[in-house]
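Exercise 7. Predict the joint structure of the components listed below.
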Amino acid sequence: MSETQLRDALNTLKSSGVRITPQRHAILEYLIHSMSHPTADEIYRALEKTFPNMSVATVYNNLRVFREAGLVKELTYGDSSSRFDFITHDHYHIICNDCGKIVDFHYPGLDEVEQLASHVTGFEVESHRMEVYGTCSACSSGGNRAKAQ
Amino acid sequence: MSETQLRDALNTLKSSGVRITPQRHAILEYLIHSMSHPTADEIYRALEKTFPNMSVATVYNNLRVFREAGLVKELTYGDSSSRFDFITHDHYHIICNDCGKIVDFHYPGLDEVEQLASHVTGFEVESHRMEVYGTCSACSSGGNRAKAQ
DNA sequence: CTCTAGTTTATAATCGTTATAAACAGTTTA
DNA sequence: TAAACTGTTTATAACGATTATAAACTAGAG
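Solution:
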C-alpha cells in the first residue's frame, strides 16, 4: 500500500518535470513510511546516515517542491518548527497539549462550513484547516512526561 | 462596548495578580480597538509614538501574559510571524491566499467533531481550531496586489 | 512614603528557514 | 562518446522572529 503511494508520488513528480534524485526519493520514502509528522530537522537527521553530505537546505528545498506538487502538506502549529504530512486522503489531526503527539482521525467533509463562510464573507473558498486539541490517554492517565514526536 | 471589553480584561488581569502597566494597557487597548489580527511587530510599531522606549520584548512578554490569562489567542499561519487575536466570543477566520486579509465569521459549534475525535482517539478534548482559506472579493475581482494586514 | 517583587529596557543569543554561489549530475544534442 | 545545458545539491552565510539575560525601573501593598 505505501509502496503504491511512493510509486504514485514519484510518477506525479516525474510527470510535472521534476527530477528524481536519490535524496528526493529518500525524503519521500521517509515521509510515507514514518506515518508521523516530522519536522524538516527530523527528516534531515534520519537521513544523514544514508546521505552524510546532505544539507538541511536540500530537505527544505524538496519539501517545498513536494508541497508545490500537492504531495505534502505543511503544518504550522504554535511551536517553533513546521511539520510535514504526506497527503494520503483527507483527514484531520488531534494534538496532545501535553506531549505533542499527533493522531489522525477522519471526519466527513466540513463543506457546509466552507459554504457558509463563502456566503458570509464573499470569499471564493478553496480549502479549510481544522485541528482538535486535548490530552492523549497516555498523558491523562498518568506520568507521561516525555515530549513525543 | 469595546470599553467594557477593555475594563473586563483589565479586571481579569488584576484578579490574577498581574500589574497593570501603561504598556500593558496600551497593548490591550490596541488589540481590542484595532479589530484586526496584528503581529507583535505591528503592535510594537503602532505604539512606538506613545512609548518611544518600549522594546519588542515587552510586546512579546505581555502577549504571552495575555495568552496565559486567556485574553488573547495566538494564530500561527504559514507565514513567518504569529498574529494575535483578542478573544471576544467564538468565531472562525477566513484567510485570503492572495493578500492575506483575515475576516471573521461565526459558525455554530463544531462540538460533534470534538466528540467524534475524542471517541476515535481516546483523547480528552479541550478545544479545536478551524480556518477557511480562499480568495477575497477584492483579489478575485481584479488587481489587488497589495499585501494587506 | 517606602519597600519589594514584578516589569521594562537594551542587548545579545538562539534557532528555523531562506538566499547565494560554486560544484555536480542527468539529459539532450551532436 | 563528448560537449553543453539545466536543474540539483552542497556549504555557508544571511535573515528574521522570538527568547534569554541582566541592569534599571515602577506599580502597588503596607
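Discussion. The two ends of chain A are 24 Å apart (CA to CA).
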